[in-house]
Amino acid sequence: MADSSPKPVPTPLVPFELVGRVTFEMLGHIGGACYLFFDAMTWAVRGTLVPGVRLGRAAVVSQLVRIGVRSVFIVSLVSGCVGLILAFQLAPPLDDFGRKDLVANIISIAVLRELGPLIGAIVLTGFAGASIAAEIGTMVVSEEVEALEAHALDPVRFLVVPRLLASIIGMTCLAVLASVTAIIAALVMSVVVLQIPYATFMRNMLDQAKLVDFATGVAKGAVFGILIGVIACINGLRVSGGAAGVGKATTSTVVQCVVAIVIADLAFTAVFYALGLV
User: Fold this and answer.
1) Number of compact structural domains in the chain
2) Residue 119 to residue 261: CA distance in whole angstroms
3) Cα–Cα separations (whole angstroms), residue 233 to 116, 119, 226, 227
4) Backbone angles phi, psi at 275, to 5 degrees
């Protein structure tokens, strides 16, 4: 009888096998996340347009409060501190050139385009993304998801859709909040400590920042919300191995969300640069 067991990979090819396996796992994870996103959006559209399909607006509002409203304080605190740090760090080198008033120009662009959405997304990843993955993972381990399927109830419709919509809406609002808070903090620091006149700060900021900069931050916030919601939900639904699996899914969610957010931010910047919007 022929031996059907897999043959060991020659030692020189082990690195290539590892790279190939990781690549296929990554592609499978990305494909599963895309499928989950389109499935959830399909249910969201049907729940909005088809009278017989209930979207569960109470669940969406509940998740929005848990994900978005409860993150307001920590996002405001972090973004405000970042605004103060930027004002402190930019003032000395600009003062060497006699243009300390340009603090407003740099901070307005940096915050509206990059730092506001990025701060909100990273804070929301740790605050809500890990929580979503742990919550859904616990449902999987305790067989609550199987109970839904046994009653002919789609887990995507009742578990994923409310959390995904709340992540998108909440992250978009938090991106705006983070940008506004950071700019206000920088304004206070500039006027009170750096002795930059209020009128000069506002004039420079309004001359530099355009509507497209604000729209860029809002668009990034929505995309970051999609990434956080989808990654957290798919990691939660794929939990196996009991409590250890829940912990692994939570850790993976934070790491994957941060990496995906940074890569998406890079892609946004490259596209906007190619279009001449930066």
Assistant:
1) 1
2) 11
3) 24, 21, 11, 10
4) -85, 0
Asked whether 44 and 165 are in contact (CB, 8 A), the reply is yes
Instruction: Kindly state whether residue 41 falls inside one of the protein's structural domains.
Output: no
pLDDT (tens digit, 0 to 9) for every residue of the chain, 278 residues total?
Answer: 455 556 665 566 567 677 777 777 778 778 888 888 898 888 888 877 777 777 777 888 888 888 888 889 999 999 999 999 998 888 888 888 888 888 888 898 889 988 899 999 999 998 888 889 989 988 888 888 888 888 877 888 888 999 999 999 999 999 999 999 999 999 998 888 888 888 988 998 888 888 888 888 899 999 999 999 999 999 988 888 778 888 888 888 999 999 999 999 999 888 888 887 66
3 state SS of 134? helix
State both tokens at 166: 């709340």
Nearest to 269 by CA among 114, 130, 155: 114
At 86, list the tokens.
């930027």
User: Range of 99's domain?
Assistant: 56-274
| Gyration radius from the chain CA atoms | 23
Q: What share of the chain is helix, strand, coil (3-state, %, to 5)?
A: 85, 0, 15
CB 250 within 8 A of CB 140: no
Look at residue 147 and tell me if it is in a domain.
yes
Amino acid identity, position 39: D
